[in-house]
């Protein structure tokens, strides 16, 4: 088999996914042997026009990381869809919205007001707010349009595969690349690849009991906890039970921090937050509505907690303002 | 309309005479249903539940190769089984049918005919979408062990044990005290017939002791129950008695020689018993035990008077607790009650004035084998000239026991009769309402009135020795309002008897937990249905007898005990039990072993497989509530017939435009 | 035309009356099952014919006659504590009183104190500016920043000559304990407790808002009161007029309310107060209803008395939870009752029967009611009334007793 | 204005039986309430409520046995706790608390269920339509399916 034509793109993202690709270390040389790159903004200099000039389906594989936040992201998503055979939503943001999608709990107006007018570090006496089109003496300037909400990649274009993670585990990345390079048989379209099929607890080795009772929610910042024992058993919210396995336990075991859910929901559920509420609510050790509300109130930002990486892919979206 | 999935669905809309069709346009409902994907036929019919209606379904299944059936008619609570049966007869898995409730929840509750029809269409649409997702379910048959465990040896347990044993099953009767007999053994007379309690109870106690089908375990408690319906394994611990009952001949010399006296529990501490004792002369087994806490030998290593006198050498100082493990198919709980002994007694001078007694003390005082050999006397031996009996002590009181204990009125009236008969004293009964709903009870109440007891309608507020007049000096003064005469009364009396209600026995709670039965807020075990299943519990194979379920009198207790016994016999006798297929299960391909579900199951049906590190549902124990499925954060636990996708499609259906 | 004049005696229920009572907070009426426990435990029982049970039944059916008994209840709470249906019976009386007060069907003697409350913020009709006179004479500082306790004195402690002695004794003890405390001067108003139970919700609310505003400005961490009624009003009634709550006020807000005897008991325990002078007297302690039954303070006053050397404490037949009532609560202090028919008279009887020479208490109303009973029988020589603070102050003065 | 659309989740033993009783007693109530039966309120989970709102429900009613009466011991308490947590969270979605309601309805409370259905319908009418998918900011497509499936 000849060399693969590959593109890597970052939309609304932090760049961590790109770094994760480089984190496959010496194997990156093998990648270079196997692949010709046609777009990789973080690593190489290409112009959008170069891509636009390619014939349709010229690229064998596109790893698209980042969520779709603005019209530029959307344009590239559509362009790369057209130019690629396999479009992969790569990383949490492309998969389920990721951190950028937390913005979906507020409005575009709210974001702009905070970012350009009211934050403590803002110095903007003229109250300038970005506009898509601005007339200047030299002519009209345009910048990409900021959408009302953040989208996961598959909410904008058709996606072939998903690789979850914030960022994806480098070993899993190599497995995915190797599979495509070697021409191994690929799973059905729409599959989540480079991840497990159960929830994270499957591989987590922290000790846990079958008698969990929640009398109050503790916060990581104000609690000491036993590094050997299940976080939930200690009253700390860990999203492990409703997060797909595959991350290599970077947080829960190597960093002694509760899972925050970046690998997205496991295969058979529809909504990470709703399921987490169902599980936690079942365990709260109270019967009096006031007491229950008090305990629940100890998590001030429930939505932010449960949908930290999947806010664009829940059953519900925020209502239009 | 949804995408067809290749199913062949038949929809039937019932007129229910005119019950449905006079409000809902049934032909329109059928016509709309026919437009849904996969619906190959949609019919309306006068009476779907009739034999021809069911035949219609069966014929269509055969002729049109239907693989799913939706019946829009009355409540599934009424006829779900009917239409499942119809499907089963046609060779279709019964769970491939689904009922839509367009009578109780539509035609009968909706005024506007157009809106009622619209609602019916939506509900049928939801059912069509749901039924596509149905999966075949199968009932399971489980073997039932022979043998029955009866917990508690009062009249309820005695009666249940005898009935079961006579019915041919082996019974293990477990009693925590050294003798069976319970409360009834402590009464002298029983209301309303006034027959002698011992005369009617003792023969039954002896029958238990000698029945070949009964293994009697006294001084014993059930420590653990495991297993599942029809297959219970119980661990019973028998305390050390320090007397070998196989050797002891029950001569009683040891009790005479024992120098140590402690208050007798059986006699409410009114007289002492010895450290080696039988609780009362007619006890079964009628062989003594040593009370380790009281025994001088166990205190300081000396004495051994009993050992020295014992002819057959039955004393065993090194006796140890024994555990017995048994397998049974069914359990009868007969753990009884405890008399209420809370602060309501002290409020009325109990503990402060020696002549204030509670009902059980009076029962012993009046008992021919009691401390005074049946003579009703004050502590100084005088015969009381006047006695007040106070109803509702701690009962019908939101601070203590809010419920009516059912027996206190009647036993209080019995006291009035006995006191008047034996002493001729003036008797004052203070009541809130006299409750006498039982056979010949009202007549007994009449009789007591005629005998001249003063019945005062008013709850006693105070009992005091603070005399205000010369008449009151040296007496106890009972203060109450005669609410009928509208006068506050101060009645000077020699003796006051408080009639406390019946409270749940603390042991019942422990037993309930072992058996996964629930208790109500007052600590009584909850029956399966208050009207139609008052003996069964939510745990299959576990039945209730007597006051552990709630206060009741002796006839009701005996009746319930016999009922529990026959249910236990029926259950064990069949040898097999069918378990419904509508249970939960945990998909081992999805379960990550987070253990969130483990403690949620009310039936203990979920266990953790330590080897595979996943949770497992025991489908024999599961009752299909679905709590685990709701809570499972990874979607591994699922409730059959109420799976996520089945409910989701139902939601889509009722809301589809 | 001739007519047959027949005298018919018909009683018909007046459901609108019953409805009004229910709407005015008498909702619990319908829970009563007429057992009569309330009547049996009511301290009035041995003195006059008074049946709370009958009152409830008449009010529930709207039958005439309940008005006559409406002001008899002294809200002592014995009935509520024992009611098997847990009915707040004092509150039922309050509801009826509220209705009667609106139609001016109240005892005339109530008009003066309730009017004074609204006009000058105390029931005794005394001028506002004289409230702090005794405090100034006793050189009590005005409460302000850096002062630990706010001493909130009952109107009766501020104006009544007899109870000013108690006020001075309290100041004396607080000084001996080294406590940092201050007075509010003329800013404080009656707590409003008696106005509320007497049925004047409006006056109660006026007092509550005035005191809340004062507390809001002063922001005291600790308020010490001299009357159990102030204690109950601040701790419980200000947040829930029916006074169902019974917590120590520490959980909500920033202020802790205590009766001075609670502080005295603490100071004795910690060693801050060391009573040394002998007070050789046989003393019995009367539990004020609003300190004992309403707020559960039974031990603190007894601990203080037990610490006084020479003092012999004797209990009356009715004490602690079962204690009798002086008759002052619920507006009773403002209602005239004939000699020999007063609740205080019963207490005097029991105190003498217990062999006491002094009857101690911790409420200015109890002081007034008991002294007037003693006077009416001419027993001043045999039996004295003293507050716990007065006895303690005496034992703190230098010298041998 | 369009009619309120309400989905009600009822437990089989108490609340569904109570709703049946309203029918047996011929008590008329608002036809807007569409009932979905589950065995126990303990089966009702937040996903169902979100799904209903997404599919166009303007309000969701949840009914179970009264505390202490649950046929499966304490399923109703589990339901209550999930419900309270979810309702708290839905504020962050801009959804009014009043659109979700949980009530205990026993098998003997047919009249109460009917009254509740009417009352809740009026409550939702006053809040106005939620509007289903269209009300939420553009699409809500799902993520991927599993490698295994």
Describe this structure in words.
By secondary structure, chain B is α/β, with parallel strands linked by helices. In chain B, the strands form 12 sheets. Chain B has a 5-stranded parallel β-sheet with strand order 10-7-6-18-29, sandwiched between helices. In chain B, β25 and β26 (487-493) form a beta hairpin. Chain C is α/β, with parallel strands linked by helices and 401 residues long. Chain C folds into 3 domains: 2-106, Fumarate Reductase Iron-sulfur Protein, Chain B, domain 2; 109-266, no CATH class; 273-396, Rossmann fold. Helix content of chain C is 42%, strand content 8%. A 4-stranded parallel β-sheet of chain C has the order 2-1-3-4. A 4-stranded parallel β-sheet of chain C has the order 6-5-7-8, with helices on both faces. Chain C is globular and about 90 Å long. The termini of chain C are far apart. With 149 residues, chain D is α/β, with parallel strands linked by helices. Chain D has one domain: Rossmann fold, CATH 3.40.50. Chain D has 4 helices and 4 strands, in the order βαβαβαβα. The longest helix of chain D has 18 residues, at 110-127. Classes of the chains: A alpha/beta (321), B alpha/beta (657), C alpha/beta (401), D alpha/beta (149). Chains in contact: A-B, A-D, B-C, B-D. The interface between A and D is large, with 61 and 40 residues.
Classify the oligomer. heterotetramer
Within the largest sheet of chain A, what's the order of strands? 2-1-3-5-9
Radius of gyration of chain B, Cα only, in angstroms?
Answer: 32 Å
Q: How can the largest sheet of chain A be summarized?
A: 5 strands, parallel
Per CATH, which architecture of the largest domain in chain A?
A: 3-Layer(aba) Sandwich
So what's the CATH class of the largest domain in chain B? Answer: Alpha Beta
Strand content of chain A: 5-15%
Task: Name the chain pair whose interface involves the most residues.
Answer: A-D, 61 and 40 residues
Structural class of chain B: alpha/beta
**Average pLDDT score of chain A:** 92
Helix count, DSSP H or I runs of 4 or more residues of chain B: 18
**H-E order of chain A:** EHHEHEEHEHHEEEEHHHHH
CATH superfamily of the largest domain in chain A: NADH:ubiquinone oxidoreductase-like, 20kDa subunit
Question: So, the CATH homologous superfamily of the largest domain in chain B?
Answer: FAD/NAD(P)-binding domain
Calculate the mean pLDDT score of chain B and round it.
Answer: 95
């Amino acid at each position: 088999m000849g060399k693969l034509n590959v593109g890597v793109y970052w939309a609304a993202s932090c760049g961590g996914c790109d770094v994760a690709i480089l984190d496959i270390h010496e194997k990156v040389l093998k990648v270079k042997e196997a692949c010709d790159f046609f777009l990789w903004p973080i690593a190489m200099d290409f112009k959008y026009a170069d891509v636009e000039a390619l014939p349709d389906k010229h690229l064998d594989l596109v790893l698209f990381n980042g969520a779709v936040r603005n019209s530029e992201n959307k344009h590239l998503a559509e362009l790369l869809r057209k130019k690629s055979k396999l479009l992969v939503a790569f990383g949490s943001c492309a998969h389920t919205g990721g951190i950028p999608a937390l913005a979906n709990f507020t409005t575009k107006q709210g974001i702009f007001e905070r970012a350009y007018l009211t934050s403590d570090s803002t110095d903007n006496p003229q109250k300038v707010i970005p506009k898509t089109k601005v007339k200047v003496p030299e002519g009209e300037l345009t910048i990409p349009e900021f959408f009302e909400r953040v989208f996961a990649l598959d909410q904008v274009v058709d996606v072939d595969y998903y690789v979850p993670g914030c960022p994806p585990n480098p070993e899993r990345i190599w497995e995915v690349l190797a599979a495509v390079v070697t021409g191994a048989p690929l799973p059905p379209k729409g599959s989540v690849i480079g991840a497990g099929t159960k929830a994270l607890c499957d591989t987590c080795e922290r000790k846990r009991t079958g008698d969990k009772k929640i009398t109050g929610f503790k916060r990581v910042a104000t609690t000491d906890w036993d590094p050997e024992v299940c976080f939930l058993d200690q009253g700390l919210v860990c999203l492990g039970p409703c997060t797909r396995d595959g991350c290599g336990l970077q947080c829960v075991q190597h960093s002694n921090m509760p899972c925050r859910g970046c690998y997205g929901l496991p295969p058979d559920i529809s909504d990470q937050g709703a399921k987490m509420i169902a599980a936690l609510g079942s365990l709260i050790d109270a019967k009096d509505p006031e007491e229950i509300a008090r305990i629940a109130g100890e998590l001030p930002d429930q939505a932010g907690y449960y949908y930290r990486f999947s806010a664009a892919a829940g059953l519900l979206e925020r209502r239009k303002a | 309309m949804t995408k067809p999935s290749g199913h062949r669905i038949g929809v039937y809309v019932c007129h229910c005479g005119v019950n449905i069709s006079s409000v809902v346009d049934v032909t329109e409902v059928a016509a709309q249903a026919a437009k849904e994907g996969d619906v190959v036929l949609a019919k309306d019919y006068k009476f779907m539940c009739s034999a021809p209606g069911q035949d219609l379904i069966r014929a269509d299944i055969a002729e049109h190769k239907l693989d799913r059936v939706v019946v829009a008619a009355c409540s599934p609570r009424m006829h779900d089984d009917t239409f499942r049966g119809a499907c089963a007869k046609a060779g279709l898995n019964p769970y491939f049918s689904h009922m839509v409730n367009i009578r109780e929840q539509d035609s009968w509750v909706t005024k506007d005919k157009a809106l009622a029809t619209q609602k019916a269409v939506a509900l049928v649409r939801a059912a069509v979408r749901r039924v596509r997702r149905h999966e075949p379910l199968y009932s399971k048959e489980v073997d039932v062990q022979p043998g029955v465990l009866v917990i508690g040896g009062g009249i309820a347990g005695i009666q249940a044990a005898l009935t079961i044993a006579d019915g041919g099953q082996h019974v293990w009767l477990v009693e925590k005290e050294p003798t069976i007999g319970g409360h009834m053994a402590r009464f002298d007379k029983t209301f309303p017939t006034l027959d002698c309690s011992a005369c009617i109870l003792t023969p039954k106690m002896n029958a238990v002791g000698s029945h070949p089908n009964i293994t009697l375990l006294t001084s014993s408690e059930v420590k653990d129950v495991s297993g599942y319906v029809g297959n219970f394994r119980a661990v019973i611990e028998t305390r050390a008695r320090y007397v070998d009952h196989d050797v002891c001949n029950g001569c009683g010399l040891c009790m005479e020689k024992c120098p140590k006296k402690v208050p007798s529990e059986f006699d409410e501490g009114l007289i002492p018993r010895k450290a080696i004792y039988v609780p009362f002369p007619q006890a079964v087994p009628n062989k003594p035990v040593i009370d380790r806490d009281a025994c001088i030998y166990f205190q300081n290593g000396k004495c051994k008077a009993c050992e020295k006198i014992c002819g057959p050498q039955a004393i065993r100082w090194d006796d140890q607790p024994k555990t017995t493990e048994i397998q049974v198919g069914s359990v009868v709980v007969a753990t009884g009650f405890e008399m209420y002994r809370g602060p309501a007694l002290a409020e009325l001078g109990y503990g402060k004035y020696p002549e204030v007694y509670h009902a059980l003390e009076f029962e012993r005082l009046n008992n021919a084998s009691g401390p005074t050999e049946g003579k009703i006397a004050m502590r100084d031996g005088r015969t009381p000239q006047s006695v007040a009996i106070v109803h509702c002590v701690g009962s019908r009181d939101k601070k203590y026991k809010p419920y009516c204990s059912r027996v206190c009125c009647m036993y209080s009236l019995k006291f009035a009769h006995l006191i008047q008969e034996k002493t001729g004293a003036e008797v004052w009964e203070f009541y809130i309402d006299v409750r006498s709903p039982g056979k010949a009870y009202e007549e007994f109440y009449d009789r007591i009135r005629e005998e001249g007891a003063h019945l005062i309608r008013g709850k006693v507020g105070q009992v005091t020795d603070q005399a205000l007049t010369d008449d009151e000096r040296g007496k106890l003064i009972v203060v109450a309002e005669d609410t009928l005469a509208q006068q506050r009364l101060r009645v000077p009396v020699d003796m006051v008897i408080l009639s406390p209600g019946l409270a749940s026995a603390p042991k019942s709670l422990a037993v309930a937990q072992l058996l996964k039965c629930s208790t109500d807020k007052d600590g009584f075990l909850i029956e399966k249905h208050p009207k139609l299943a008052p003996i069964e519990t939510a745990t299959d194979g576990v039945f209730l007898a007597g006051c552990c379920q709630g206060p009741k009198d002796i006839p009701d207790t005996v009746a319930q005990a016999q009922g529990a016994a026959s249910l236990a016999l029926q259950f064990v006798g069949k040898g097999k039990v069918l378990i419904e297929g509508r249970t939960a299960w945990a998909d081992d391909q999805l379960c990550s072993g987070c253990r969130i579900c483990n403690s949620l199951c009310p039936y203990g049906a979920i266990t953790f497989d330590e080897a595979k590190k996943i949770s497992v549902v025991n489908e024999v124990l599961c009752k299909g509530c679905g709590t685990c499925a709701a809570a499972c954060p990874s979607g591994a636990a699922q409730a059959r017939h109420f799976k996520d996708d089945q409910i989701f499609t139902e939601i889509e259906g009722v809301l589809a435009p | 035309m001739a007519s047959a004049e027949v005298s018919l005696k018909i009683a018909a229920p007046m459901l609108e009356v019953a409805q009004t009572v229910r709407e005015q907070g008498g909702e619990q009426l319908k829970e009563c099952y007429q057992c009569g426990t309330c009547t049996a435990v009511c301290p009035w029982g041995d003195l006059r014919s008074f049946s709370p049970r009958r009152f409830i039944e008449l009010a529930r059916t709207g039958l005439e006659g309940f008005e006559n008994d409406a002001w008899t209840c002294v809200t002592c709470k014995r009935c509520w504590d024992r009611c098997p249906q847990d009915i707040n019976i004092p509150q039922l009386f309050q509801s009826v009183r509220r209705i009667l007060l609106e139609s001016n069907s109240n005892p005339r003697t109530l008009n003066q104190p309730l009017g004074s409350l609204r006009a000058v913020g105390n029931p005794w009709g005394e001028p506002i500016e004289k409230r702090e006179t005794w405090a100034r004479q006793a050189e009590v500082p005005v409460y302000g920043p850096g002062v630990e306790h706010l001493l909130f004195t009952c109107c009766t402690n501020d104006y009544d000559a007899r109870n000013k002695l108690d006020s001075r004794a309290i100041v004396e003890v607080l000084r001996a304990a080294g406590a940092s405390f201050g007075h509010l001067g003329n800013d404080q108003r009656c707590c409003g407790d008696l106005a509320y139970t007497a049925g004047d919700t409006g006056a109660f609310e006026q007092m509550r808002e005035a005191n809340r505003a004062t507390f809001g400005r002063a922001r005291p961490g600790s308020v010490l009161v001299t009357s159990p009624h102030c204690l109950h009003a601040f701790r419980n009634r200000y947040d829930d007029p029916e006074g169902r709550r019974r917590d120590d006020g520490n959980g909500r807000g920033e202020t802790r309310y205590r009766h001075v005897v609670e502080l005295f008991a603490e100071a004795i325990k910690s060693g801050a107060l060391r009573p040394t002078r002998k007070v050789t007297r046989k003393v019995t302690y009367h539990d004020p209803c609003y300190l004992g039954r309403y707020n559960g303070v039974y031990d603190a006053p007894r601990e203080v008395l037990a610490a006084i050397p020479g003092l012999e404490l004797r209990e009356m037949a009715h004490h602690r939870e079962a204690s009798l009532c002086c008759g002052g609560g619920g507006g009773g202090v403002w209602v005239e009752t004939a000699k020999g028919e007063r609740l205080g008279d019963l207490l005097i009887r029991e105190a003498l029967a217990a062999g006491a020479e002094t009857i101690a208490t911790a409420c200015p109303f109890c002081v007034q009611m008991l002294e007037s009973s003693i006077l009416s029988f001419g027993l001043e020589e045999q039996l004295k009334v003293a507050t716990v603070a007065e006895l303690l102050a005496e034992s703190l003065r230098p010298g041998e007793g | 204005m369009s009619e309120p659309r309400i989905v009600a989740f009822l437990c089989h033993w108490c609340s569904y039986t109570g709703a049946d009783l309203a029918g047996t007693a011929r008590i008329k109530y608002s036809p807007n309430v569409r009932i979905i039966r589950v065995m126990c309120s303990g089966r009702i989970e937040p996903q169902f409520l979100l799904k209903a709102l997404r599919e166009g429900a303007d309000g969701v009613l949840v009914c179970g046995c009264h505390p202490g009466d649950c046929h499966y011991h304490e399923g109703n308490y589990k339901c209550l706790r999930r419900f309270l947590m979810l309702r708290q969270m839905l504020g962050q979605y801009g959804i009014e608390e009043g659109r979700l309601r949980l009530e205990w309805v026993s098998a003997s409370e047919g009249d109460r269920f009917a009254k509740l259905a009417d009352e809740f319908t009026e409550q939702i009418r006053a809040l106005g339509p939620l509007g289903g998918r269209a009300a939420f900011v553009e699409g809500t497509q799902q993520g991927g399916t599993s490698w295994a499936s």
